[in-house]
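Late entry, flavin-adenine dinucleotide complex.
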Amino acid sequence: MSELNETGPTLDETGPGAAAKPAHGHVPTGRPRVVIIGSGFGGLFSARAFEHADVDVTLISSTTYHLFQPLLYQVATGILSEGLIAPSTREVLAKQKNVEVAYGKVVDIDLQGQTVTATALGTDTIYDYDSLIVAAGSGQSYFGHPEFAVYAPGMKSIDDALELRGRIFGAFELAEIAAASGRHQDLERLMTFVVVGAGATGVEMAGQIAELSKRTLPHDFRNIASEDARIILIDAANAVLPSFGDHLGAKARKKLESMGVEVLLDTKVTNVDAEGIEVETGDGAHQRIPALTKVWAAGVQASELGKTLSEQSGAELDRAGRIKVQPDLTLPGYPNVYVVGDMISLDNLPGVAQVAIQGGKFAAKQILHRLKGQPTDERFKYFDKGSMATISRFSAVASMGKLRFSGFIAWFMWLAVHLFYIIGFKSQLGTFFHWAVSFLGRTRGERTATEQQIFARNALDESGFEAKVPLGSGRALPERTPDPKRDAG
Ligand SMILES: Cc1cc2nc3c(=O)[nH]c(=O)nc-3n(C[C@H](O)[C@H](O)[C@H](O)COP(=O)(O)OP(=O)(O)OC[C@H]3O[C@@H](n4cnc5c(N)ncnc54)[C@H](O)[C@@H]3O)c2cc1C
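Prediction complete; structure with ligand written out below:
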């Protein structure tokens, strides 16, 4: 009998009639076990901070890649491929032998029992932990109108970016057909692009759609003038880039307007449907804008796991679902559980990559101190390295401490910083090449778009695919046979 048969379940235990029983996701090795939830900035940087440490780390994530969200808009507008901004987490951490990467969506955390349950395509797995770092980030908020998502995809995931790419390039294709067949009355709707939210993502999206229509596409169509596309940026607040201050916000607005983007501030979205968007302006007037393509770049909602943690620890949630952590990023009453990044509410820290990166590294350091019996820091201290947003090629705004930059110098700084933080030399080189093609030339290397990209998500939602196709049927997997060489790390 093989070793696997000795330790694993018999055929009867795994057969069609077997009871749904989650398996354990790792083999006890005697070393302290750290579980990290999420492979974004918080999760990845905390995992890396355990390099050479005498612990076993399991990083569980609902995505198999580390997503560099700040460049999603470039995937949506055909500048970069998704692979460049989302390298495989497994590959990124391959050389760090004390880290095991597990694909799965965490559906439960038991703070008392110190376990995390994750599910992947119908198979549940339980992971024990001695210390836990929760870095599950945030999703899009439609401010109580989730139904808008069907017509106005957000900008949070690879799926969002690819769907938007399909919709943006697809709208120009439909306009070309309409113009060629004499349906000129349809052109206004087909060639109007509305971006909701005038924060960094909205500004970047609006700027890139404008560049696409005016610089990249004009020579490619025979029946439409792509440069006639109408691009509208809408926000309920009365400023563009409010977190950058009045001066830079005004500069960004002026630049966008010089590129032909219509900026509608003090304007609230009241409805979104397949054919357009309805808004209420500051003076109470209602207006309908016919627009096939809508992009939602407003509002975030922290991961649902915040609720799970709040119910068990008593920590409060704010309106965006972020959990009010202790000053040292732990949960009240649970000094071994850290929450980092977009999920936290602490000292008005913004939802930016550096908060997640520094928080993740801080949590890892604290855990290692505790394990060695050394004193831990009482507070997480965030070092603000500044913020940046691009508007178009050669134009950006940047704010660093008391310094403010705009125009080419800010754009150059933006390029350098983003290139530095993209994970992996392969991605850095590829990104550099794609930028050269797009910014020095006029073309874009990643215009591939399919109908499936546009319609698959809604079709999947409607079919209830996840519930219907439990690939593992919730059955226990054979336990992994301990491998002394591998487990020695
Ligand atoms: C379009 C866009 C542009 C941005 N631009 C900038 C910018 O220019 N500069 C800047 O500083 N910040 C920017 N940000 C914000 C920045 O990306 C976030 O603050 C940062 O990603 C937060 O890191 P995080 O680790 O908390 O979450 P994330 O990076 O979102 O990672 C969350 C991880 O958790 C995983 N996950 C979620 N739920 C579960 C679950 N239930 N089980 C298992 N895994 C789960 C996800 O798959 C993901 O891997 C931008 C964000 C967006 C969306």
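Residues 37-43, 60-63, 69-70, 72, 105-106, 135-137, 155-156, 200-201, 303, 305, 341-342, 351-354, 356 surround flavin-adenine dinucleotide (CB under 6 Å). Will revisit in the morning.
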